[in-house]
Amino acid sequence: MIIDFSKPVPLFPLNACVLLPHATAPLHIFEDRYRRMTRQALDSNGLIAMATFEGDQWRTAYEGSPPVRPCVCIGYVARHEQLEDGRYNILLQGICRARIANEVESGPYRAAILKPFETDPPKDVDLEPCREQIEQLLADPMLRQWAQIGAVRNLLSKEIPTAAMLDLAVMALCRCAKDRYEMLAEPCPCERAEWLRRMLVRTRQTLGQAQRQGTCLSEDGVALN
Q1: 3-state secondary structure the chain
Q2: pLDDT, tens digit, for every residue of 88-115?
Q3: Domain stop point among 116, 140, 168
């Protein structure tokens, strides 16, 4: 999808929801200002930029314009359902990483001029070593006990570019909004692959230690006692 970066994009800031390119986020839109944002997005190009709040100021100034972090994910409303009372259920499909250049006046909701920071998509051949390391870890018998690993392994059997696979794997395996934002703000797919590799190695160590100690694990691979 071609994005005209000369035009402002609506901002939808949340505290703990970080969207990455290629992934999807189901969202329930109930505030009046964001109902209007969604309606106007659907009437134009369908674009909404997912943003995250910076710090805790949003807790006391939510109705205003509390600070947001500079990196956002531009998404496209892939599906929507308008409820009888005007609320929306939407599925936002992540498209690309961008930075906020400056916010602009847009009425009841926020909007900004954005700048992409992944202008040169990497060639898959350049990412083959990274992908091989990730594939080897995902095949590890210890890690395959982790429920989410199965979903990520399915990505390897499809014709999915490595950069997209990395974003989808982070979304599937990482529940921490702070870590997801770190991966959103990282422009280099090789660095994202290295972060994912380290995370999988740490998880394997945790699973191995829990197995030796007879610790119960949740479906996320987290020790429960």
Answers
A1: CCCCCCCCEEEEEECCCCCCCCCEEEEEECCHHHHHHHHHHHHCCCEEEEEEECCCCHHHHCCCCCCECCEEEEEEEEEEEECCCCCEEEEEEEEEEEEEEEEECCCCCCEEEEEECCCCCCCHHHHHHHHHHHHHHHCCCCHHHCHHHHHHHHHHCCCCCHHHHHHHHHHHHCCCHHHHHHHHHCCCHHHHHHHHHHHHHHHHHHHHHHHHHCCCECCCCCECC
A2: 999 999 999 999 999 998 889 999 999 9
A3: 116
